């Protein structure tokens, strides 16, 4: 959840990178390994779901916690389009980059992709996650990997090449 909260486009929100059952069964929550990749894919899922005005409880329990073949079938049935799963995933990526570009235009950079002090410095005192926290150096390493996966600069700004690839080249002039 750390990388998801730090990079959420509307502030730290469990709606932007979901700790789904799929996450819990496929990832070791004691290590940062694989977390940036999960965050990117899950953020595409949540962006598409938000665009479909789809309840997370329904989508996750009915279709799964990531974009899969159910989504193009649903969209195609309603619209008459012929989207592939890769195209639906690309829609999520476009939405996420558009939201980030807006936030960058408003001043957001890597310095704002942070977590509360307690999350980075104070281990959880008890319960299932006892002893866990996300030290600043761990978050920095995840941010490096996350930005590289997204095709963004090290300061968290989408590159002109990434925006052009996504058909969002008109945004390039609005970013630093």
Can you tell me about this structure?
53% of the residues lie in helices and 0% in strands. By secondary structure, the chain is mainly alpha-helical. The longest helix is centred in the middle third of the chain and has 21 residues, at 85-105. 28% of the residues are buried. The mean pLDDT is 91.
List key phrases describing it.
Aldehyde Ferredoxin Oxidoreductase Protein, subunit A, domain 3, globular, 176 residues, 9 helices, mainly alpha
A few lines on this structure:
This protein is mainly alpha-helical and 176 residues long. The protein has 9 helices and no strands. It is globular and about 50 Å long.
Query: If you consult CATH, what is the topology?
Result: Aldehyde Ferredoxin Oxidoreductase Protein, subunit A, domain 3
CATH class: Mainly Alpha
Pattern of helices and strands: HHHHHHHHH
The CATH superfamily is: Aldehyde Ferredoxin Oxidoreductase Protein, subunit A, domain 3
Major sheet details: none
Individual helix count = 9
Radius of gyration: 17 Å
Beta-sheet strand percentage? under 5%
What class would the helix/strand composition place it in?
mainly alpha
Overall residue-averaged pLDDT value: 91
Q: Give the total of domains.
A: 1
Low-confidence stretches: none
Distance between the termini: 29 Å
As a percent range, the share of helical residues equals 40-55%
Count every beta strand, where a strand is a DSSP E run of 2 or more residues: 0
Task: Please name the CATH architecture.
Answer: Orthogonal Bundle
Form type: globular
């Amino acid at each position: 959840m750390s990388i998801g909260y730090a990079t959420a486009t509307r502030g730290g929100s469990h709606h932007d990178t979901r700790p789904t059952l799929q996450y819990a069964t496929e990832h070791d929550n004691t290590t940062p390994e694989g977390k940036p990749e999960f965050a990117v894919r899950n953020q595409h899922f949540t962006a598409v779901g938000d665009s479909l005005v789809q309840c997370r409880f329904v989508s996750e329990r009915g279709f799964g916690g990531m974009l899969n073949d159910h989504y193009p079938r649903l969209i195609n049935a309603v619209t008459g389009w012929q989207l592939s799963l890769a195209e639906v995933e690309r829609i999520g990526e476009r939405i996420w980059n558009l939201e980030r570009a807006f936030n960058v235009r408003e001043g957001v950079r890597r310095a704002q992709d942070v977590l509360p002090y307690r999350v980075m410095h104070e281990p959880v005192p008890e319960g299932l996650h006892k002893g866990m926290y996300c030290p600043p150096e761990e978050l920095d390493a995840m941010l490096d990997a996350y930005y590289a996966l997204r095709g963004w600069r090290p300061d968290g700004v989408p590159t002109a090449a990434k925006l052009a690839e996504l058909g969002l080249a008109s945004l390039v002039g609005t970013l630093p």
